[in-house]
Design a protein that fits this description.
The protein is α/β, with parallel strands linked by helices. It folds into 2 domains: about 140 residues, Quinone Oxidoreductase, Chain A, domain 1 (Alpha-Beta Complex); about 140 residues, Rossmann fold (3-Layer(aba) Sandwich). Helix 1 packs across helix 8, helix 2 packs across helix 3 and helix 2 crosses helix 7. It is globular, with a radius of gyration of 20 Å.
Amino acid sequence: MFKALLIEKDEGGQRVALTELDEARLPEGDVTVRVACSTLNYKDALAITGKGPVVRRFPMVPGIDFAGVVERSDSPAFQPGDKVVLNGWGVGEVHWGGLAELARVKAEWLIPLEPAFSPAQAMSIGTAGYTAMLCVMALERHGITPDSGEVLVTGAAGGVGSVAVAVLAKLGYTVVAVTGRPEEAGYLTGLGASRILPRSDFSEPSRPLAREEWAGAIDVAGGHVLANVCAGMKYRGVVAACGLAAGMDFPATVAPFILRGVTLAGIDSVMCPLDERREAWRRLARDLDPRLLESMTQSIALQDAPEVCTQLIGGGVRGRVIVPINDI
């Protein structure tokens, strides 16, 4: 038997409860992991609150991330005792996820835990931080360097934004942080932001083109925010788009792309190829100051996840939330 957060749904609606399950109910997979720590991302909050159609199979154990220790393996890639991390692959959506004491998954979904991180630190990073690193790598791949100019980060006080600000600053970029929470200015400057802009500057309908300001940008918002970011990019600037917190629509024009040569790079962390995700984690071990993780992380008990997810959806959570489960 093992404890898990379980989402069930019937004609009466969706219910979420901490429950005890028989190990025989674990889904198919060739590796069983004792979960040391999981985390809450925006997608987890959508799943647990039912505010978005994330879960596509019920009942579901949510949690798109976990770090833990291999307990049993039918794959030559992993042996009992190996420390591993999982991000994405539909876990917590169509396959039982990490908000449980045990998880059973496919071996190809796992990567070794970087020696630089404990399981809790890996989850302080989680899919949010791993996505932020993929965004930074996309900017670099398209030629954006610290000498190119300022890099804008929207949703900067959230999970993706916090890690993006910290990594970019450590790499020498001049980072401009956008947030709807002015009280987080000190937190963001502590992560390395050079200045803070209010979200309201980006929330109204955009003009086709605005004054050229940003060499690069990482956007978690979508909607009018992304449209305004694109309108204000410098010639041949690059925007890495990875979220939809402000909406799935994109009310913009093609002007930034055909008149300024702006690149809009889409970032998907869920099905990202294994070699690229392993490189992202190697880069995080090198380019993220682990001392900053404590300031951007809060720890909660598994049973408190539903309440915290409601706060997360409402924009009331700063940085990252981890859920320690087993003491490993």
